[in-house]
Amino acid sequence: MPTPLAIQDLIGNATEFPILNRWQFFNHAGVCPLPRCAGDALRTFATQFENDAYLDSGFYRQIDALRTSAARMINAAPAEIAFVKNTSEGVATVAGGIDWRAGDRIVTTAVEYPANMYPWMDIAKRFNVELVIVPEETDSTGARAVPLQAILKACDDPRTRLLALSHVEYASGQRHDLLTIGAYTRPRGILLAIDAIQSMGVLPIDVQAMNIDFLSADGHKWLLGPEGAGIFYCRQELLASTRPLIVGWMNVINDQAYGDYDFTLKPDARRFECGTHNVPGLLALKASLELLLSIGTQSVSARLRELTDQLVGRLIEKRYDIISPRDEASWSGIVSFASPLRQTSEQHDHQAIFRMLRTDHQTEIAVREGRLRVSAHFYNTEGQIDQLIERLPDH
Ligand SMILES: Cc1ncc(COP(=O)(O)O)c(C=O)c1O
Cβ(116) to ligand 1 under 6 A? Predict the structure, then answer.
């Protein structure tokens, strides 16, 4: 188990987070920078492979250790974790792994990232499955969210096979209440498939308490890993009935028996891994994920709440409209907001603000679905948030 790290020692620490030397970086909901420990893992890998190839490296044992750490982060068993190349592969593994019947229903929302929409559209078309899409609404605070009750109501049909949901929606930052949702879906036999790329590592996830059946998350956002190395969880009881998306040499029990063919799939989640791993990617992900794990998701989450509260408070002072829900159940690390003058003033146009911050101030945010989106991580400082606010146009 990694030694617990004090979060205070890492905040604003440019040795551990070199990005702090050059950028005010607030796009962790897009693609994250690597912390030094992940860079070190890649450098060590490169040196080792230049000099000794895979011999005596211990890399494969480290990948097994990552399986254990990833499982611990979401309260799963290591046997329920597979490595995937991205979130899309995890979602598609679920979509392609179920024996769909004509007339089945899949429920999702109208604001999913396309990685969590096209696989279901594909299934709907191929198997005559109904895809039910729940829209986003404006709530009483002016925030945009898909109401919990609307999701549950959409599921309320005996033909519903699966609910596909992002834990945190990429454009609004809404966090869904998975404890309540999972308590509804499990007794009704509805599979709960979660895209967790916008939450894993920084918001608590407990696949058992939340009754999650499948979960997918690439490492390149809040987990602070490189692109192309991700985590897929499949609940133990569903392993045998979920068909692997791609079959290759590694899915089977005797994967080192080579020519002695025996097409018996592994009993654990490694049955979803078809061939050689992205070793450097997973080693870097291990370093980042274990850094977060050693701080503790609760501490990271509390820090994100502080930073996002500060940001939202200052944005309101500056008369921006807050789009992200901020109540206790729905807040996340994503803060989306809009200028009331975005359509009438060139200076307030969102793309213009985005470009001005990047070009004039080495400050990175994002524009998604017409909204400005800031996603700070725990190591960003209050001072950086203040600077960002100063640079935004007044109203
Ligand atoms: C909710 C969500 N899912 C998935 C992805 C990315 O998918 P992948 O890991 O397949 O690139 C993103 C990226 O923005 C996202 O916001």
Answer: yes
From the list 146, 161, 156, the residue with the least C-alpha distance to 193 is 161
- Report the pLDDT value the prediction gives residue 3, as an integer from 0 to 100: 64
Q: Residues near 255 by Cβ (< 8 Å), separated by ≥ 6?
A: 249, 266
Cβ 202 vs Cβ 299: under 8 Å: no
The H or E element that residue 133 is part of is strand 130-134
Which H helix or E strand runs over 155?
helix 148-155
Q: Tell me, in angstroms, the distance from the centre of ligand 1 to residue 330's CA.
A: 19
Report, in angstroms and rounded to the nearest whole number, the Rg of the chain calculated over CA atoms: 22
Q: Is 375 in the pocket of ligand 1 (CB under 6 A)?
A: no
Neighbours of 198 (CB within 10 A): 26
Sole residue written with tokens 């109401």: 147
> Which token pair is 290?
């274990």
Q: Nearest to residue 351, comparing CAs of 333, 361, 339?
A: 339
Ligand 1 centre to CA of 84 (Å) is 13
pTM, to two decimals:
0.97
Handedness of CA 145, 150, 151, 152 (dihedral sign): positive
CA of residue 347 to ligand 1 center, whole Å: 30
Q: What's the rounded Cα separation, in Å, for the pair 351 and 342? A: 9
Closest CA to 239 of 214, 212, 202, 208: 214
pLDDT tens for each residue of 61-111: 999 999 999 999 999 999 999 999 999 999 999 999 999 999 999 999 999
CA 112 to ligand 1: nearest atom: 1
SS3 content of the chain, % helix, strand, coil (to 5): 40, 15, 45
Give the C-alpha separation, 203 to 331, whole Å.
10
**Angle at the Cα of 285 from the Cα atoms of 382 and 67, rounded to 5 degrees:** 125
247 Rama sector, left if φ>0, alpha if ψ -120 to 50, beta otherwise: beta
Q: State how far the alpha carbon of 246 is from the alpha carbons of 114, 117, 146, 250, 303, in Å.
A: 21, 20, 33, 10, 40
